[in-house]
Amino acid sequence: MTFHSCTADARPDSFPPVNEAMNTLHNTLPRRGAMPALRQCALAAAVASAFVLSAGTAMAQSAAAPVGESAMVKLIRGLIQSGTLAKDVGEALLAQAQTEAIAAQQAQRQAAVSATAASATVAGGMRLEAGDVRVPYISQTVRDQIRDEVKAQVMAQAKDEGWAAPNETPEWSKRIRFEGDVRVRNESRSYAGNNSDIEINWPSLNQGSGYDVNPNTNLSLPSILNTRQDRRNLFRARARVGLLADLSENTKAGVRLASGSDESPVSTTTTLGGGLGKKSVWLDQMWISHKPTDWLTVTGGRFGNPFMSTDLLYSSDLNFDGIAAQFDKKLASNRDLSLFGTLGLIPLEYSADGSPTRSQRKMKSENKWLLGAQVGADWKINEDNRVRGALAYYNFRNVSGQVSEPCALYAGADGCSTDWSRPAFMQKGNTLMLLRDISLDPLNPAGTPQPQYVGLASKFRLIDLNLRWDTQVAGNNLRLDANFVRNTAYDANDIWKRGGIRGAIVNNFGPTGGTTQSDFKSGGNAYMLQATYGKPAPAARGDWNVLAGYKRIEPDAMPDGYNDSSFHGGGTNARGYFLGGSYAIDKNMWFTGRWISTKEVYGPPLSIDTLQLEFNARF
Length: 619
What we know:
With 619 residues, the protein is an alpha+beta fold. The chain has seven helices and 23 strands. It has a 16-stranded antiparallel β-barrel. A two-stranded parallel ribbon has the order 1-2. It has a two-stranded antiparallel sheet with strand order 4-15. β21 and β22 form a beta hairpin. α2 runs antiparallel to α3 and α2 runs parallel beside α4.
């Protein structure tokens, strides 16, 4: 077979096979959300090359191999097999290419027959013989232009549709972000030499089967707190990492993990050492929030503190379970004044479903709740002054201890009827009472074991007032905080009637050692004052602050299980001052030092000084 060439300086727009193929490709390419950049570049180059090759060989293929496959068909098959084209899209292109190839073969046969019959000649006077095929010459410049045009069109479509833009991330990833913080602390605690050395570890007593208070059957002491031996240079650390997702403009969700030595709700700090063993990680938060309007947010799950408060009442590490609705709205008449508030329904504890374990008669449901309501205002007086205040009411329902019905533990009774009323978590300070009314064995009354639990003797309905004033002094921010808490349910006489008359009150007596009502010392008020000068939350390098404050917390001003665990070792029945300061040594990294000196409000002496030096990093 003889091939003859003729000069053809055709432009891309006058090259019908290319334009046809490009139109086919443009109309059938998938409207997809993500094709990697390497794949789209390979697709563009392969398509461009195939257009040029198929243009030069299409006539030869149609004449020499009428039943074979064209270059375009082979290209599409290859792209499907390599995964560059989705199977469904590739099969559609393949069917169309095969149809067009058959039509082109038929057209070429007819043209060849006509040309042979007419004995046509090509340019230059050369006569075409039977079987000869014209092969137009396309210069390198034109081939380059075709390739670049095809590539540009494919790239433009890919970028417009967002499935192959360079350095582009999927749309869903833009709605997810991570945040967290790490803290490394060196802590030392110093105890006065004259501290009482008989401070019972009440949370430990409430574990297991209780502590036997009958001296005839138990001569061992309960678990006792360390109150005299200093603890120096304890290295401790905290890590928290959270994932936040914007599900839509109005709906968000979050999950956070945190370190921690135990299940304590008020501390995510873990003590290092322990034989270099691995440290525990806990599920610290898990929540969903929705904004039905611009000024209202409803959150459910386990979430951060939704109330304006200080660590006098709620630790900064404390999270809340349940559901909370928060509103925040600027006044139309004064855009510098906004009102805010929170309603919270917080489950504190549910009674065990299978209690008593070894009894066919199960106890009724006894659940503990925190019902919270708060309203406040935020007023921007001018550029240098801002005032924020809030008034809250917290009703801790069903948290007080209750004396049980007589229970014959000696006869094999599976616990007593009010064992559920002991608190799931407590620190120290609240007035406590024995819960069990244990029946004595008539055959051996003096030798009857009497394992006891303790519960909260007071009820708790709190009024919480918070005030904050931010102003400028000598070019720096000065923040003044004041917090006052009053337990409106506190009543010393009621406490004594519920537990004291039968000798069930076990703590908060005066230093004389007496256990009568006249020796009982407690109270229902707490307050905190604090001044912070400088940046309250250092973030940029060189930011700094210094602070000073004072707290006084009477024993039954609040439940002792939820406030700061560093002040006096956590809990209530504490008073003292604290000093501190922070300096940012780099962006989102700062050093903090804190000195806390505390002692008891009532009862036996207990003085504790705490020094904390720490590095913090936030991301």
